[in-house]
Amino acid sequence: MALSDQLLSKKAPNPLFKSLLSLSLILLSAEDFLALEQKEDPELKNQGLDIPSYDAFTLVNEAVKATALNKKTAAFRGLLNACLRRYQRESKDLLKTVWQQEEVRYNFPSWWIKSLRHAYPEQYQSILKAANQPASLCLRVNRRQISMEAFKRALEQAGIKAVQIDDDAIVLEQAMPVQQIPGFAEGHFSVQDFAAQQAIKMLPLTNGQRVLD
């Protein structure tokens, strides 16, 4: 994590310590990063994102105590405490620094960002932003169990708005727990991305074959 690299003047003592520090920083900075993301994309404010919120004092205290539970980290309680306290003091400047890094801002590894930038120099940022958008809930209707028309009627009766986009595919306007969708227990549908549904149509299949996804 970029924040941990900013806070450590040298290489982390060991991977376990680095993991504990990174996790603690993720929890401490979650709301701060969300604020930065919402500043760039105001529509995120309307998505009702569930971001965990922890009291900073409690989080730091519990993280420091956790270092004592393993001999590989016990000797570095002071270092962990110092890093987390420094983040609390300098969070604004630290976040500003790491936010300049595209792998932090878009949450993708640098090698992938470089590949996209090379292939689509004018559009790569839009592609990365789009890839971070929550996917629609796409269902594959099991037409051996129910017809598409009957399934759409069941959704309508349940007050669920959806759009049919293919012979077998239907997309819900709003995602919801699959257990609340009519026909779940009966096997009338399965959750499957539309791209995956299209892939199977490209296979040279014959009658009687079964395909494992």
Beta-strand content bin: 5-15%
Question: Helix segment count?
Answer: 9
- The best one-word shape is elongated
* H/E series: HHHHHHHEHEEEH
- How many discrete domains? 2
The side-by-side strand order for the widest beta sheet comes to 2-3-1-4
Which regions contain 5 or more consecutive residues with pLDDT less than 50? Answer: none
Spatial extent as radius of gyration: 24 Å
Give the quaternary arrangement of the chains: single chain
How far is the first residue's CA from the last residue's CA?
34 Å
Mean pLDDT: 87
Number of strands: 4
Structural class assignment: alpha+beta
Main sheet, how many strands, which sense, barrel? 4 strands, antiparallel
Helix content: 40-55%
